[in-house]
Design a protein that fits this description.
The chain is of the alpha/beta class. The chain has four domains: 136 residues, Rossmann fold; 168 residues, P-loop containing nucleotide triphosphate hydrolases (Rossmann fold, 3-Layer(aba) Sandwich), CATH 3.40.50.300; 87 residues, Helicase, Ruva Protein, domain 3 (Orthogonal Bundle); 49 residues, Arc Repressor Mutant, subunit A (Orthogonal Bundle). It contains 22 helices and 18 strands. The strands form six sheets. A five-stranded parallel sheet has the order 2-1-3-4-5, with helices on both faces. Strands 9-12-15-8-16 form a five-stranded parallel sheet. Strand 4, helix 4 and strand 5 form a beta-alpha-beta unit. Helix 2 packs parallel to helix 3, helix 14 crosses helix 17 and helix 20 packs across helix 21. The structure holds adenosine-5'-triphosphate (ATP). Keywords: ATP-binding, DNA-binding, Nucleotide-binding, Phosphoprotein, Transcription, Transcription regulation.
Length: 488
């Protein structure tokens, strides 16, 4: 019997000849056939083996087929259950199907081709169930793994989950890390997390902002100097390289560093050795390098501001911090965090953000990223006289006019509508109603929506009520009852 996955089937019947005949009929390299002479023996096999389909006789001494299949339904709900029965007992089978105990039935005596076809359908259904449970399991794993916060980061967007995972995975390595991302997105928080999660955490993390230090002082800032090395060098001084020994050295805005000095940095990274300014003695240190830029590194290389060899030396592992606007609902979560923090600092009491303030935060593009959000909430907390942080106070801190604010709030309804359409279309039942999804303007009663969903599911399953019920995740008896009600 052709089958995409290696399946197993269990036949339960008190007549050994029937078991032998069924085994012979279905013998195939893709299908393992088990047999049991009673319901009790069948349960023992189910305890030990992974069984995809159970086919059970109804009338058996001891535990009858109904009791046996009821137990299977309770303990192994993913196993497809079929009842083998005489034509005269069809009423009992319908009751068993309606209760959800049985998925389908086969009649005795059987027609070989029909029986094979029936088993093939059960195999397809079993495969569908297996895929569904795998999907559920994977989704559950993804959901439970999803972090709401990470180190000092707030936010549970998918984009940030990649960042959290990358930081966690490479924190313990000594390989150099290059962090990219727009200004204010959280590159420094990433550096902090990388250091604190590494074995170097008890040693210093030294940060040097290459854009903030004048180029003539940079060499001394990094390597230190000895007394008299240049005018103003009145005493020996250790630089960042010495201070960071055993720990991490963070070079921020690397592209702003003098190109001549970049050659010395390259040598320092390659050998771990350096000379203080004015001294010929080499010193050796053990440092992990992290660098960052909020500019496009290849553009800096093209423009001759960043040495290509230095870039590749530092960019062993790269981490990109996405802009705030690409992080789903993170802005609202971060805003709430800053609201709590700044109301404590400013000793003011807030009950929260108004719903429109939340919409504005969600829809605004935050070109200055988290830093801009932080400053906006801080100033709004200071300026607000209301215990509810409103959209008006935020708009005034962001210097938005009424039209811009209205536009941001209007986006809400469009987004909400799109989201509801998306949700409707990603639901397998509503997906069947494709042509009805766009009728959002005509509000339909719940009963109408329910009936349409049921009718579409039944049509999709070619009038197989049991399958339709399974798709709709209700019992077949519920569907029969509903259909009966429409006909009354
Ligand atoms: N996900 C976050 N949750 C909470 N606070 C954050 C988050 N990301 C950043 N911040 C805060 O936002 C501010 C800016 O972050 P950070 O200094 O790390 O940005 P940056 O990318 O290094 O910026 P720049 O490129 O301008 O140096 C900091 O106060 C930081 O604590």
């Amino acid at each position: 019997m052709p089958n995409e996955f290696n399946a197993s089937i269990l036949f339960v019947d008190d007549e050994p000849e029937i078991l032998t005949a069924l085994t012979r009929l279905l013998r195939s390299k893709d299908l393992t056939v088990h047999t049991a002479i009673s319901g009790e023996k069948g349960l023992q096999i189910l305890e030990q083996q992974n069984i995809d389909i159970v086919v059970s006789d109804k009338n058996m001494p001891g535990m009858n087929g109904n009791e046996f299949l009821q137990k299977v339904a309770e303990q192994w709900p993913e196993t497809v259950r079929i009842m083998l029965t005489a034509y005269t007992e069809l009423n009992d089978v319908i009751a068993a199907i309606n209760s959800g105990r049985v998925w389908s039935y086969m009649t005795k005596p059987w027609n070989n081709d029909e029986l094979k076809l029936n088993i093939q359908q059960a195999l397809n259904y079993s495969e569908f169930l297996a895929e569904r449970s795998l999907l559920r399991h994977t989704l559950e794993q993804v959901q439970t793994k999803r972090k709401r916060n990470f180190m000092k980061f707030i936010g549970q967007s998918t984009a940030m989950q990649f960042v959290y995972d990358a930081i966690e995975n490479c924190a313990s390595s000594n390989a150099s890390v290059f962090i990219t991302g727009p200004s204010g997105a959280g590159k420094e928080l990433a550096v902090d997390a990388l250091h604190k999660l590494s074995s170097r955490k008890n040693h210093p993390l030294i940060c040097l902002n290459c854009a903030a230090i004048p180029s003539e002082l940079m060499e001394s800032e990094i390597f230190g100097h000895i007394k008299g090395a240049f005018s103003g060098a009145v005493a020996n001084r250790d630089g960042a390289a010495t201070l960071a020994d055993g720990g991490t050295l963070f070079l921020d805005e690397l592209g702003e560093m003098d190109i001549g000095l970049q050659a010395k940095i390259l040598r320092f990274i390659q050998t771990g050795t350096f000379k203080k300014v004015g001294n010929n003695k080499e010193e050796k240190v053990n440092i992990r390098f992290i660098s960052a830029t909020n500019r496009e590194p290849f553009k800096a290389i093209e423009e001759g501001r960043l040495r290509e060899d230095l870039y590749y030396r530092l960019n062993v592992i790269s981490i990109n911090i996405p802009p705030l606007k690409d992080r789903e609902n993170d802005a609202c979560q971060i805003a709430q965090y800053f609201l709590n923090r700044f109301s404590d600092i400013e000793q003011k009491v807030f009950v929260g953000l108004s719903s429109d303030a939340g919409t504005l935060i969600k829809n605004y593009s935050w070109p200055g990223n988290v830093r801009q959000l932080e400053n906006t909430i801080h100033s709004a907390v200071v300026m607000s006289e209301d215990p509810l942080l409103t959209e008006q106070i935020l708009a005034s801190q962001l210097q938005l006019n009424q039209t811009q604010m209205a536009e941001l709030l209007r986006k809400k309804s469009a987004t909400a509508e799109l989201e509801s359409i998306y949700q409707a279309s990603s639901n397998p039942i509503n997906h069947l109603q494709d042509n009805k999804i766009h009728e959002t303007s005509a509000v339909r009663s719940l009963a109408e929506v329910e009936r349409a969903a049921i009718e579409h599911a039944i049509a999709l399953c070619h009038d197989n009520i049991v399958k339709a019920a399974s798709l709709l995740e209700v019992s077949p008896s519920t569907l029969y009852r509903k259909i009966q009600q429409w006909q009354d």
